[in-house]
Amino acid sequence: MAGGIIVAGFLVIALAGPVLAPQDPLAQDLGRRLSGPTRDHPFGRDSLGRDVFTRVIYGARISVVSGTAVVLAATAFGIVTGMLAGWKGGWWDETLMRITDMFLAFPSLILAMAISAILRPNLTNALLAIAVTSWPVYARIARGQVLTLRTRDYVEAARAEGATDAAILTRHLIPNAVAPILVQATVDIGNIVLISAGLSFIGFGAQPPTPEWGVMVSEGRRFLMDQWWIATFPAIAILLLVLGFNLVGDGVRDLLDPRLRKL
Amino acid sequence: MNLLRYVARRAGLTVFVIFGITLITFVISHVVPADPVVSYLGEHAPPDLVEKVRHQMGLDRPRHIQYLLYLRDLIHGNLGVSIMDNRPVSRDLAQYLPATVELSTAAMVVAIVIGVPTGIVSALYKDRWPDQVARVFALGGTSLPVFYVALLLLGLLYSRLGILPGPGQLGIYTPPPPHITGMVAVDALLSGSWATLGDALQHLILPAFVLGYYSAGLITRMTRGSLLEVLRQDYVRTARAKGVAEPRVVLRHALRNALLPTVTVIGLTYGGLLSGAVLTETIFSWPGLGRYVTNSMISVDIPAVLGVTLVIALIYSAANLIVDVLYAYLDPQIRYT
Amino acid sequence: MRRLPIGVLACILLASWAAAPGGLAAGYGPQQTVVIALDITDAVTLDPNLAYELSATMADHQMYSNLVTFARGNLTQPRPEVAQSWDVSKDGRIYTFHLKRGIVFSSGNSLTADDVVYTFQRVVSLPKDPAAWLITQMGIDDKNVSSAVTAPDPSTVVVALPKPFSPGAFLSIMANPVAGIVDSATVKAHVVNNDWGNGWLTDHSAGSGPFQLARWERQVAIELVENPRYNLGPAPQVKRIIFPNILENTVQREMLGRGDADVAWNLSAAQLAAVRSDPRLYVVQTPDLAMEYLGMDVKNVPAFAKAEVRRAVKYAIDYDGIINDLLNGNGTPLQGVIPKGLFGYEPTLWFKHDPAKAKSLLAEAGVGAGFTAELLTSTGPAAGGISSGDLAAKVKNDLGAVGITINVRQVATSELLKTYRGQQSQMVMLSWFVDYPDPDDFAKPFGDYTQKSLAWRLQYYNDPLVKLVGQAAEMQNTPERGAIYTKVNETMAQDGPFAILYQPVLSLAVSKRLQNFLFDPVNFIDFLSLTKH
């Protein structure tokens, strides 16, 4: 479970960020801008003389927090709608599923771009936009799970005992439906980091001087050939974090249900 | 359930979805805190010119009237006039769509050509070193930011080493082929301009690879997973017991069934390609929809945003529909209600 | 059997690969072609009477001739081009242009006074014309153009201005691409649905300049080839100009390095520094007729209502730091509102970086404890090729050091303009670029709020200043005019809501294969004198 180690590492960095970081992520030193990796500045300095190592660490906080927040919001909303659709069926189901279809009919980056552009580009709005594009998948999964599980014996039994719909949902269905959602969620955090970085790259997400990794790669791309460290270290950070979550996702999937290989 | 009815139902739903999208997009794009007329005219335009042009563009009418007029035009196939381009949106789309389709399709081909064999190798050598290498490769694809890879490879392979040509669909001195489909490589092929075709293909490699790498990763994992699953099935064991040679087991019996889920992935990744195209096209100066999308959102070009939204949603829905139909057709056990 | 078609296809592909051109030329080879890598996505149309964006006007400048022009380097004195001489009436309202004889368009048609009249008609009649205001601000519109601009005979054009207008500005505008003379016969032949030929002229050319349009593929390239009928001067050595659309300046730099491009337009300050140390390349520079400024709204932020506070801001800025460190020297100091290169330019630098002085001014004004303001800037680049984000971060630092807390908000330009033009901003950071090379083009927007331009957007209503600007507008470039502009600059510096940060230097990275490279911010590259080895 190499993935677990990587992710745990990032979590630690994210939580302990300011303590670990040697410098102030926003402190400029124009005189020594664009200097390469040294002992004091292991990742070098960027175009304004800021310490890249520090900014990468602060970026870890941003990415881990954003990714988790978005996933939590998306899964919460998705589970609620999906369960509702699957349990109630009929008119509820049709309408909710058509709405999710509408969102699924969109490549996520483009929809996120549109929402960001409308709401004015900054990190919060970008995350909101990504959450909006992510929840349909969870709704679909949740609905599928409810449809499968509602015919199980224990559900029948509970109903025979007179349990309310809400009780059945919360006590029996959600815990059993969680598995595929968990798998999807872990992988999704990685995707969210990528999409968010992509949005920042084209200017629709986090803005400078925020030390978000996508912003850093975007700012550093002009210097890629000569002062490669400015864009490369944040890119490696993105790679490692996403990789870590993907591995964890794989591991969770293998662990929870080896038969679950569908998307 | 009858296949035809299924298709018809899905198509009908798609139309409904498209209309819903136009309404949503229209509503929210009018909430944008930006003025498309000023975007078009530039900062120096005096206020009276701005109002005059706003009237000429019909943007001073009440919003609901604008939407209704838009719908009416839409039904007649008219997507309106792009504000930033001063041209019909349909012409803009017709011009830029082929380049994106060409790039996405090439990327898809790359992804399949790389992904499927890698997935097969990975499954057959499960847990041994080819599998590990393949999985790292696949994971790398899905974890790397595409814009970084694009810049890096372009810098290395073009600027430093000169192995591949620079940005754009064709070299600067290469005259474009006659316009048949709008896709440069295809047009060169159809019109027999071999030199141009070669140039176009050379320019296509790097962007297609960069864009396809991400999907290649997904396809590898999918293929590996489903092939492993299929190889455990009874009919495979039967074939082996009967003495059928291993390669034949794999190719004839297992692969066909294993590729079914891969087909699903292909449909889904096509949408991902459209997203990735936005980033890739900027870096490679590829004259496709990606750049058009970004520009129209930045300058709040409402007709263009609406037009692009519709087209992308249509393509995506069509791709999903085809995949679902293919899936249902290939696997008689699955018929959706 | 199924293998065969695939194999054949593969062979075809491989063969065409090998045959791929390395330098295939349609007529003119690389030796006679200049390739300029820049971002041409802003081009909307190549119709000269409608084009307003950089790439389009640059191309139009080569394809169309004007009544007058500005000779390289001298932007204060218009020179004859199509008009060999002109007379101005005593009240400065009637201009009589005497045209040269024998000028022909690329089609072979002769250029006469009727073409000039038709050009004016197009400018004021074309709908959705962003450039029209240059002419309509003189009082000429589609209702009076037939009486304002007339052709008494084929070699004479008379322009009668309906209201007083600066003579210097008028002639400058005549040299602007918006007044590029079109071949009326050819254009009229392509009119569709009363569009004044705009549909056709958008991607074709009908001018008398040294070049004509070979093709314009949107988002791909603009290509010009020589106009063999050009007779307003000697033929250029360069026969073909290609502007390929290259969006990333990193890629522009790479193309330059590999020899695929001769000029890179959008390089950043840091990239230019790297170019200087490359023996095959050199950097060409000229001060751009533009400036980057901070605007302070005098009503939305109570502190900015006081002139002392506005001055304090100007003392707080580290001008040298910005020019030397951020811009890498690609900027020159400017604190007046008229940039270097124009008549009326004021080299005085009233404000040195002095945080102590700034703090004492703030205390004097009663805001010694500091205050907060929101700085609105765009997500794109600032003048001079640096990122607005970087510059805003520096300004935030500088102002923070004297107690003014700045919250930077970067938004898309379209949103920025909406807020700014709606008088809703607190502080803005933007650039302002020249339209025509007359000091009035800067003095009016910055100083005269009645124009509903920059001063108005920041709610800076200074009536005596308006009078001064109006006075200077009507004068020719005399010492008296200079004296008034000195006063205007002084007033803007001491009292105005604009803190001028710097004047950017326009820098191009050029291959040493190109020699005799003359370059100015109005005419851009002089292709007539350019040579390529």
Automatic annotation (TrEMBL), chain A:
Residues 60-249 form the ABC transmembrane type-1 domain. The chain crosses the membrane at residues 62-87, 99-119, 228-248. Its main location: membrane. Signal peptide: none annotated. It comes from the Bacteria. Keywords: Cell membrane, Membrane, Transmembrane, Transmembrane helix, Transport. SUPFAM superfamilies: MetI-like. It is a multi-pass membrane protein. It is found in: Cell membrane. One of its GO terms (biological process) is transmembrane transport. NCBIfam families: Opp2C. This is ABC transporter permease. It comes from Candidatus Segetimicrobium genomatis. The lineage of its organism: Bacteria, Bacillati, Candidatus Sysuimicrobiota, Candidatus Sysuimicrobiia, Candidatus Sysuimicrobiales.
UniProtKB/TrEMBL annotation, chain B:
GO terms for cellular component: plasma membrane. PROSITE patterns: ABC_TM1. GO terms for molecular function: dipeptide transmembrane transporter activity. It holds the Pfam family BPD_transp_1. Residues 97-327 form the ABC transmembrane type-1 domain. Its main location: membrane. The chain crosses the membrane at residues 12-32, 103-125, 137-158, 200-219, 258-284, 304-330. Keywords: Cell membrane, Membrane, Transmembrane, Transmembrane helix, Transport. It is found in: Cell membrane. CDD domains: TM_PBP2. It is a multi-pass membrane protein. InterPro entries: BPD_transp_1_N, MetI-like, MetI-like_sf. SUPFAM superfamilies: MetI-like. Belongs to the binding-protein-dependent transport system permease family. This is ABC transporter permease.
